[in-house]
Structure formats: C-alpha cells, structure tokens
Design a protein that fits this description.
The chain has about 325 residues and is an alpha/beta fold. It has 13 helices and 13 strands. The protein starts with a strand and ends with a helix.
C-alpha cells in the first residue's frame, strides 16, 4: 500500500501538520507500506521525515491539487492524506473527481463542505456539528480516541514520578515561533532560583542565535530539532509550551504543562485541555507577560497535589492508540 501525505509547513504555520502526519506514517511504514510526503517548502524537518523512511517532495508554482494528483498516480497511492489550513472544499472535490481516496485532517470545520472519504479531527473539542455539510459516504473520526502520537511516545507506556517540589522545566514553543515567545518565557524563568531548564526549538526558528546566547548566559540548555522529545518529557516536571497538538503528547506522558496560545487555531485545544484539568492555559501570547508566567509557575512548583491531578487527567485523555485506529479506519474503508 502506498500513502501520499500532502501537508503544509513553514516558519509561520509551524511544523505541527507534518509532525502529526509523521505519526500516521509510522504505523503504515511498520506494516510495510510506502509513504511519500508532498510539502509546501524545504525545511530542516525534511531530514527527519526522510530518516523515518519516507520520501519527500515539494510543491512548485504549478496548481497544487494537480501536482498532488500527478504524484499520487505516479506512486499508485491508495490514499492521500491532506493536512493544512489552506485546503478547502475545492481541493477535496478535485482529488475525489480524480478517483482518489482522501483522508482530510481538520481542526475546526474549516471548509464549507466536505467530500473526503474520512475526516479526522483528533481534538478534545471535536464535534459532528463541524461537518453537517458532508457527503453521504464521508465518515468522521472525532476526538482524542484518534489523537495521532508518534511511535517514540506510543510504543511504550509513560513513566511519571511526581516530584514533591518541581524544578525541571521543559520549554517548547513550536517549530517556528516567529513572535519569539520563547524569549519571554526564558526571561520569566531566569527570575526563579534553582531551576533546571531545557529549551527545545525548531530549525526554522528565526531567533535561534539570540536564544542560544541567552541560554548560555543563564545556564539553560537549548536543543535544536530534538529527536528525543519523549526522554525530555520524562525528565521534566513541568512543561511550558504552545497550545497546539504537542499538548496531547504532554497529556499522554502525564506531564503537567502551562500553555500559551501562539495562534488562533490553538485556542480551542488549549482551552479544552485547561477545562479538562490536564493543563493550565496562561492566555494569548500577546497578553501573557513574563510576570504572569513567573507567578503561575511559582504557584505550581511546590503544589504536588495539583501536578498529580493534571498528570492523571492527561493520561486518561490520550491512550496512544489513535494512529492505529485511523489506519484501521482507512483499511476498512478500502474494503467497503
């Protein structure tokens, strides 16, 4: 079986679309399938996708849908996975009219109508009401039952010991972070004594050099394009992060997190996990100050009970089997 993944990535949109598709690709690769990515532009993440065992291609100036169809037919793709906020109902219709099976990954009902074979919304707030205008044959895969986690997480159960007093802080504000929210977080952390801080940024981060200098000056460790995020989450007592899909990894790992919304599409994820009790939402990045971060963190550091409840809540929300369930739905759809 050959799989084609058309996903968007850039310093502005971040790496989330590709990373969750990578999670899906891993379960297909494990079963002996071939997986091909068709991406918006070249980024440092290309190497990681290739190292996983996939091939990488890039969109040029020609029509996006037609390039996708051409590559799908060239590799004899059984399915096309589409993930990105620029894809609309016309894009879906064009792929379906070409006779292709389509899995459309969606976060908030972005299209006026849906003709994909399967719609995946892996989020805590997902509801059928987003997709009332869909084809009769379109099936819905909704909620955290289908949350896509990479095999580095899902391959084994998490280990979580809740320290009496937290001191190990993991900072990760996405692959791009064009607003440099990471700097604000680091400034907050520098005012708190006795912290051990690990900072993860993506290779597309435009402020890499400045952040690296700041980390060296304040005895913090910075890691670019880490391949051992699971180990870092196991190490950490608390994460400070954007409100995107990485929060589901925190939940699975039982890692309490303070979240900051970096983009409007992150708000529902961050709000949903905050309301569930798995994370604490600090707010929209422009409104969150270093003082806000310092205050909330200093409250949470000694609060063993609060961190324990957050950890338990997250573990119960995400079980790590979502990618397998999505794959099974795709295979069953093929057989029907």
């Amino acid at each position: 079986m050959n799989l084609l993944i058309r996903a968007n990535i850039s310093s502005r949109t971040g790496t989330g679309h590709v990373m969750r598709c990578l999670a899906l690709s891993e379960v297909f690769l494990k079963a002996g399938s071939s997986v091909h990515f068709l991406l918006t532009e070249k980024t440092p993440l290309d190497g990681r996708v290739i190292d996983t065992g996939c091939t990488v291609n890039h969109i040029d100036d020609r029509d996006d849908a037609q390039q996708t169809i051409a590559l799908a037919k060239k590799i004899d793709a059984s399915w096309i996975v589409v993930d990105g906020y620029t894809f609309d109902e016309t894009f879906q219709n064009t792929l379906k009219e070409a006779g292709l099976n389509v899995l459309f990954i969606d976060d908030y009902g972005q299209c006026d109508s849906y003709t994909a074979d399967l719609i995946l919304n892996q989020n805590i707030y997902a509801t059928e009401e987003f997709y009332t205008n869909r084809a009769d044959y379109t099936q819905l895969l909704l909620g955290n039952t289908y949350t896509l986690l990479r095999q580095e997480f899902a391959s084994r159960k998490p280990k979580r010991n809740i320290a009496d007093t937290a001191s190990k802080i993991l900072v990760t504000l996405g692959g791009g972070d064009p607003e440099n929210v990471t700097q604000k977080v680091l400034e907050a952390l520098s005012t708190i004594a006795n912290l051990d801080v690990q900072v993860v940024i993506g290779g597309a981060n435009p402020n890499k050099d400045t952040l690296e200098t700041y980390c060296k000056e304040h005895d913090m460790q910075m890691i670019v394009n880490t391949s051992n995020m699971r180990e870092l989450m196991e190490w950490a007592d608390i994460a400070i992060a954007g409100g995107g899909s990485t929060c589901y990894e925190f939940a699975y790992m039982g890692l309490p997190a303070l979240t900051i919304s970096l983009a409007e599409n992150q708000n529902p994820v961050a709000e949903g996990l905050d309301q569930a009790g798995a994370t604490v939402l600090l707010g929209w990045h422009e409104n969150v100050t270093a003082e806000n971060i310092t205050l909330k963190l200093t409250e949470l550091l000694p609060d063993h009970d609060a961190r324990s409840k957050m950890s338990e809540t997250g573990i119960h929300l995400v079980d790590g089997q979502g990618a397998e369930r999505v794959r099974d739905a795709m295979l069953q759809s093929n057989d029907s």
